[in-house]
Specification:
Chain A: Its main location: membrane. The complex is a heterodimer of chains A (305) and B (239). Chain A is mainly alpha-helical. Chain A has helices spanning 2-31, 38-54, 67-88, 101-125, 150-172, 174-184, 186-191, 196-222, 229-244, 249-270, 275-289; strands at residues 130-131, 140-143, 146-149, 224-225. Chain A has a two-stranded antiparallel sheet. A two-stranded antiparallel sheet of chain A has the order 2-3. Classes of the chains: A mainly alpha (305), B alpha/beta (239). At the A-B interface, helix 6 and helix 7 of A face helix 2 and helix 3 of B.
Chain lengths: 305, 239
């Protein structure tokens, strides 16, 4: 039973990684851009959500708000932050230098935004973890000796439902078709009348939404947020994305869940400090056997999703 | 005139790709632009399509100045480019490729127009839901033309459509170009296959190192052997 409990815990934890890993894989798959701001968007949703629920809106505009509107505002802030990042990092791609700077500039700029956002929150709220309280923090469902946290189950379902919705959008809609065409041949997509400058922000809105949602789920499930919450989740989500295969949405889902399970079992068998070694060790072994990841395609920039 | 390009200039950094080129395409005409590799033919078409920003000159289409309009607006205006190398989206299905051509349009007419293209090209219909990567070179070229037709163009620009195709397929392609023209579509055709291009076109221009060297009716250009030798170095291999 303890093992089954660990599987459940691992899947719940993986649910958080899934949303963030899908955000990573979308920007890599469509824009060929490793967006380092993703972990900080996750953190912003959690910390701003906490701040609004603790102090209310800034400049005394309101009393502290309930947990739902607070987290909704947190998610909205993550989306807005993601659009700011688009404006100031990804648009550099338009300046085609034809050398390494083309990829390095957005990457380094996004790393800059990661630190700027993180330290702005640190300046505002300090480095201590903060408790985030919801009415059902301890709402559990006990069956056959197992403890199942209801908010976590709901969170996992919401997370998977959003990813499923996104993947249907990519596969079936006109917008999804244009995104896939742009991912493969941006110059040709332009000739079809696709306005790349209008379509790229949509990827960043999806990124902000996924990370914001994951941050909000984290706050509800674990009842605690901190300015550093993005870093650990971010690196594990990257591991999940690479494990599943770059640019593959369902690969990121599988990878996120596998990382969650690996972490939980590693902690269970070898203690709390072992998780990073096990996760990254597993990743390196899988990459040795299958360099494109579990569900990845051979080439980045071709035939994704 | 449907298309009037005047003094078009295009530079990429130190490269002066197009040097003050002027050309026109009349309603219902097929006009060809000839020239060797690197003569600036593709750059010229990309600038007309709005994919490259010209450094000088003006472009008038259908009686209005479109020099400052974006590529997407030009597609809406009815100015469509079939790019060199076909540029099929291989990660999309055959049908999805066609529908990308209708990106600027919406409504029930799009599906009807797509069916018309499938009727015209039964080979594409048979692989409608397959990834476009399974198509042969000739089928990909038909798909690229079909995709462009779905934008409902007034003027279709084709960049080296015969490149890499077998002689039989090239014949089919030029038949198709003539047929589309007979149905009222104006065409600006860039080719290295001089002989075929001059057979189907009514007028032509010769481009060398980005500048216009000659222009005339197809008969005049075809008759002028020295011209072909001077500026179309590899015309013989291409034909």
């Amino acid at each position: 039973m303890l093992i089954v409990q660990q599987v459940l815990n691992g899947l719940m934890l993986g649910g958080i990684y899934v949303a963030v890993a899908v955000a990573f894989t979308l920007t890599i798959g469509i824009l060929n851009f490793l967006n380092f701001t993703i972990p900080t968007l996750f953190m912003l949703a959690g910390m701003i959500g906490w701040s609004v629920s603790f102090y209310g809106l800034p400049f005394g505009m309101s009393e502290p708000l309930g947990w739902i509107p607070s987290l909704a505002i947190g998610i909205l802030c993550a989306i807005v932050a993601s659009l700011i990042v688009e404006r100031f990092t990804y648009r550099y791609f338009k300046a085609k230098h034809g050398d390494a700077t083309e990829h390095a500039i957005p990457l380094v700029s996004s790393l800059g935004f990661l630190l700027i956002f993180e330290y702005m929150i640190l300046i505002a709220h300090g480095s201590d973890p903060r408790g985030f309280h919801t009415p059902f923090g301890d709402l559990n469902w006990r069956v056959a000796g197992l403890v199942i946290s209801i908010p976590q189950v709901v969170g996992l379902i919401v997370s998977l439902a959003i990813v499923a919705g996104l993947s249907v959008l990519l596969a079936r809609s006109k917008l999804g078709r244009a995104l896939r065409a742009t991912a493969e041949k941006p110059d040709t997509a332009v000739l079809m009348g696709v306005e790349v400058n209008r379509i790229v922000p949509i990827v960043f809105i999806m990124t902000g939404l996924l990370c914001g949602l994951a941050g909000a789920l984290f706050a509800v499930n674990y009842g605690e947020v901190s300015p550093f919450m993005g870093e650990q989740v971010g690196t594990k989500a990257i591991a999940g994305m690479v494990l599943g295969g770059l640019g593959s949405v369902w690969g990121a889902v599988a990878g996120g869940l596998i990382v969650g399970l690996t972490e939980t079992f590693s902690i269970y068998f070898f203690g709390a400090t072992s998780a990073q070694v096990t996760i990254w060790g597993l990743l390196l072994v899988i990459l040795l056997i299958r360099p494109k990841g579990l569900f990845g395609h051979n080439a980045i920039g071709k035939g994704k999703f | 005139m449907l298309l009037e390009v005047a003094g078009l200039d295009l530079r990429y950094g130190a490269t002066h790709a197009v040097k003050g080129v002027s050309l026109t395409v009349g309603e219902g005409e097929i006009v060809t632009v000839l020239g060797a590799n690197g003569a600036g033919k593709s750059s010229l078409l990309k600038a007309i399509a709005g994919a490259e920003k010209p450094t000088g000159g003006t472009i008038q289409f259908n009686g209005r100045d479109i020099t400052g309009r974006g590529a997407s607006q030009r597609v809406r205006d009815g100015l469509v480019l079939v790019p060199e190398g076909r540029q099929i989206f291989v990660s999309l299905s055959v049908e999805e490729n066609l529908l990308m051509g209708a990106y600027t349009r919406s409504g029930a007419e799009v599906a009807r127009d797509a069916e018309e293209i499938f009727d015209r090209f039964p080979n594409l219909e048979a692989r409608r839901h397959a990834p476009a990567s399974v198509l042969s070179g000739g089928e990909q070229q038909m798909l690229a033309v079909g995709r462009a037709l779905l934008a409902r163009p007034k003027l279709m620009m084709l960049d080296e459509p015969s490149l890499g195709l077998s002689p039989i397929v090239v014949d089919q392609l030029f038949d198709l170009i003539a047929e589309l023209n007979a149905q009222g579509l104006s065409i600006l055709l860039v080719e290295q296959n001089t002989q075929m291009a001059l057979e189907v076109a009514s007028r032509g221009y010769v481009l060398e190192l980005g500048a216009l060297r000659a222009e005339g009716t197809a008969e005049e250009l075809a008759a002028d052997a020295s011209l072909v030798e001077a500026y179309l170095g590899n015309a013989e291999d291409a034909a």
